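Lecture 7 notes: from sequence to structure.

We start with a single chain of 127 residues. Read the sequence below before looking at the structure.
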Amino acid sequence: QVQLVESGGGLVQAGGSLRLSCAASGSTLSMYAMAWFRQAPGKEREVVASISRSGGSTYYTDSVKGRFTISRDSARNTVFLQMNGLKPEDTAVYFCAATLQWLPNTVLNRPSEYGTWGQGTQVTVSS
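Now the structure, written as C-alpha coordinates:
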Protein backbone atom coordinates (compact mmCIF):
# COMPACT_ATOMS: atom_id res chain seq x y z
CA GLN A 1 0.00 0.00 0.00
CA VAL A 2 1.44 3.35 -1.01
CA GLN A 3 1.77 6.18 1.50
CA LEU A 4 1.91 9.82 0.42
CA VAL A 5 3.52 12.80 2.11
CA GLU A 6 3.05 16.34 0.81
CA SER A 7 5.45 19.22 1.37
CA GLY A 8 6.18 22.66 0.01
CA GLY A 9 3.19 24.62 1.22
CA GLY A 10 3.48 27.96 2.96
CA LEU A 11 2.60 31.64 2.96
CA VAL A 12 3.27 33.61 -0.21
CA GLN A 13 2.23 36.98 -1.60
CA ALA A 14 -0.10 37.23 -4.57
CA GLY A 15 1.83 36.70 -7.77
CA GLY A 16 4.36 34.46 -6.10
CA SER A 17 5.20 30.80 -6.67
CA LEU A 18 5.32 27.58 -4.71
CA ARG A 19 6.26 24.04 -5.65
CA LEU A 20 4.39 21.25 -3.89
CA SER A 21 5.90 17.78 -3.67
CA CYS A 22 4.16 14.47 -3.01
CA ALA A 23 6.64 11.79 -2.02
CA ALA A 24 5.51 8.18 -2.11
CA SER A 25 6.72 5.23 -0.08
CA GLY A 26 5.71 1.60 0.21
CA SER A 27 5.14 1.18 -3.52
CA THR A 28 6.24 2.57 -6.84
CA LEU A 29 3.99 5.24 -8.30
CA SER A 30 4.39 3.86 -11.81
CA MET A 31 1.07 1.99 -11.54
CA TYR A 32 -0.87 4.92 -10.10
CA ALA A 33 -2.78 7.80 -11.62
CA MET A 34 -2.19 10.86 -9.46
CA ALA A 35 -3.89 14.13 -8.68
CA TRP A 36 -3.73 17.26 -6.56
CA PHE A 37 -6.92 18.37 -4.86
CA ARG A 38 -7.57 21.38 -2.65
CA GLN A 39 -10.11 22.27 -0.03
CA ALA A 40 -10.79 25.76 1.27
CA PRO A 41 -12.73 26.37 4.51
CA GLY A 42 -16.43 25.78 3.99
CA LYS A 43 -15.95 24.47 0.47
CA GLU A 44 -15.92 21.03 -1.10
CA ARG A 45 -12.70 19.32 -2.08
CA GLU A 46 -11.97 20.04 -5.75
CA VAL A 47 -9.48 18.70 -8.23
CA VAL A 48 -6.69 21.09 -9.16
CA ALA A 49 -4.73 18.92 -11.58
CA SER A 50 -4.37 15.25 -12.44
CA ILE A 51 -1.85 13.19 -14.34
CA SER A 52 -2.04 9.75 -15.92
CA ARG A 53 0.11 6.80 -14.95
CA SER A 54 2.31 7.36 -18.00
CA GLY A 55 2.53 11.10 -17.47
CA GLY A 56 1.34 11.56 -21.02
CA SER A 57 -2.07 12.98 -20.13
CA THR A 58 -2.88 15.80 -17.75
CA TYR A 59 -5.95 17.74 -16.66
CA TYR A 60 -6.26 21.18 -15.06
CA THR A 61 -9.27 22.86 -13.61
CA ASP A 62 -10.06 26.07 -15.51
CA SER A 63 -9.02 28.42 -12.72
CA VAL A 64 -5.40 27.21 -12.72
CA LYS A 65 -4.78 26.65 -16.42
CA GLY A 66 -1.65 28.45 -17.56
CA ARG A 67 -0.48 28.98 -13.97
CA PHE A 68 -0.05 25.47 -12.49
CA THR A 69 1.88 22.49 -13.84
CA ILE A 70 1.61 18.90 -12.61
CA SER A 71 4.48 16.52 -13.25
CA ARG A 72 5.83 13.20 -12.03
CA ASP A 73 9.36 11.92 -11.53
CA SER A 74 9.57 8.14 -11.57
CA ALA A 75 13.16 8.03 -10.35
CA ARG A 76 12.23 10.05 -7.26
CA ASN A 77 8.80 8.40 -6.88
CA THR A 78 7.38 11.88 -6.50
CA VAL A 79 4.67 14.03 -8.04
CA PHE A 80 4.97 17.81 -8.18
CA LEU A 81 2.65 20.76 -8.54
CA GLN A 82 4.38 23.93 -9.70
CA MET A 83 2.18 26.91 -8.86
CA ASN A 84 2.96 30.28 -10.42
CA GLY A 85 1.00 33.51 -10.39
CA LEU A 86 -0.69 32.58 -7.14
CA LYS A 87 -3.90 34.36 -6.21
CA PRO A 88 -5.65 34.75 -2.84
CA GLU A 89 -8.40 32.43 -4.11
CA ASP A 90 -5.80 29.65 -4.36
CA THR A 91 -5.62 29.58 -0.55
CA ALA A 92 -6.54 26.09 0.63
CA VAL A 93 -5.20 22.84 2.00
CA TYR A 94 -3.70 20.92 -0.91
CA PHE A 95 -3.89 17.12 -0.96
CA CYS A 96 -2.06 14.60 -3.08
CA ALA A 97 -4.01 11.49 -4.11
CA ALA A 98 -3.22 8.21 -5.83
CA THR A 99 -5.21 5.39 -7.39
CA LEU A 100 -4.16 2.19 -9.12
CA GLN A 101 -4.85 2.53 -12.82
CA TRP A 102 -4.22 -0.11 -15.48
CA LEU A 103 -4.75 2.23 -18.42
CA PRO A 104 -1.61 4.31 -18.97
CA ASN A 105 -3.20 7.52 -20.25
CA THR A 106 -6.34 7.83 -18.15
CA VAL A 107 -6.76 10.85 -15.89
CA LEU A 108 -9.26 10.80 -13.02
CA ASN A 109 -10.75 13.89 -11.43
CA ARG A 110 -13.27 12.90 -8.75
CA PRO A 111 -12.26 12.46 -5.10
CA SER A 112 -14.25 9.21 -4.98
CA GLU A 113 -11.94 7.73 -7.62
CA TYR A 114 -8.90 7.99 -5.35
CA GLY A 115 -8.20 5.57 -2.54
CA THR A 116 -4.96 6.91 -1.09
CA TRP A 117 -4.48 10.42 0.25
CA GLY A 118 -1.73 12.43 1.86
CA GLN A 119 -2.23 14.49 4.99
CA GLY A 120 -2.37 17.80 3.14
CA THR A 121 -0.24 20.94 3.09
CA GLN A 122 -1.52 24.47 3.70
CA VAL A 123 -1.10 27.09 0.97
CA THR A 124 -1.93 30.67 1.96
CA VAL A 125 -1.77 33.51 -0.56
CA SER A 126 -1.91 37.04 0.81
CA SER A 127 -3.19 39.97 -1.20
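The first strand starts at residue 3 and ends at 7. Keep this in mind for problem set 3.
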